[in-house]
Write a structure and sequence with these properties.
2 copies of one chain form a homodimer. With 113 residues, chain A is α+β, with helices and mostly antiparallel strands. Helices cover 63% and strands 12% of the residues of chain A. A 3-stranded antiparallel β-sheet of chain A has the order 1-3-2. At the A-B interface, helix 1, helix 2 and helix 5 of A face helix 1, helix 2 and helix 5 of B. Chain A binds a DNA duplex (30 and 30 nucleotides) through helix 4.
Chain lengths: 113, 113
DNA sequence: ATGTTACTTAGGAACATGTCTAAGTATGAA
DNA sequence: TTCATACTTAGACATGTTCCTAAGTAACAT
């Protein structure tokens, strides 16, 4: 069974902030500079930088310096670990329902005999 | 395009803590009492309660009182909003790649003529 | 060489989070 | 009724988070 993955802490926590989700949404459409990302976020630039730092720490984005501007990009495989964790739990849950169905079936068969 | 959903703040933030993920993992296998959930978490009961409170606030679990014990259960549809958000972003990203492919194709065609 | 642009760093205020201990309250058992 | 169990509430405390302003630094543009 899935053991403790610290990377998921960073990933899910990063996703827990609306500003950061908006940034990711923007980056899903393509690369953008820090100031492009900051535009429309009624927030000081250093605050946006903090969010970018968290997203990068969570491996959700990458960034590179091009001259004096920093270009940010979504990590292609960004969401996979989170999606995998979620579907693993769903799978366990489904399994549980199946076992419940089996149990009911067994009860009904026992009643018939 | 998906607007701001405060429920995702609670959901993803709740998922960002390892103790809470472990609790969810446990509940995916079936209901459990508070003390059953607390067992094996080297943590005082009130601390576990706090985690349960967050999970319930995020609609990831439900709980009911049975005598003096509280039974917690995973919400069946627990992960859907989070999964939907993640796949929506992936979809946008895939779309972007398609458009990039189109762009490259266009460049190559232009070069041929 | 100088000014402007685009970040970056530093430091701090306000509030949220994760944990604890100690002291309840409600139920069940004897 | 009295004791044990299973939470529950209250309060404290250290840390973490999210924002800010002010003061850098590096790369262009002129």
């Amino acid at each position: 069974m899935s053991k403790y993955e610290p990377s998921l802490d960073l990933c899910f926590s990063a996703l827990g902030d609306p500003t950061r989700r908006m940034i990711l949404q923007r980056l899903a459409r393509g690369e953008a500079s820090v100031s492009a990302l900051a535009a429309g976020h009624d927030m000081a630039l250093p605050s946006v930088m903090e969010h970018l730092k968290k997203l990068e720490a969570a491996n959700l984005i990458t960034s590179r310096k091009k001259g004096r501007t920093r270009i940010c990009a979504l990590s292609p495989e960004a969401f996979t670990p989170a999606q995998n964790w979620l579907s693993a739990q769903s799978a366990i849950w489904e399994g549980r329902l199946d076992r419940f169905d089996d149990y009911i079936t067994t009860l009904m068969q026992e009643k018939e005999t």
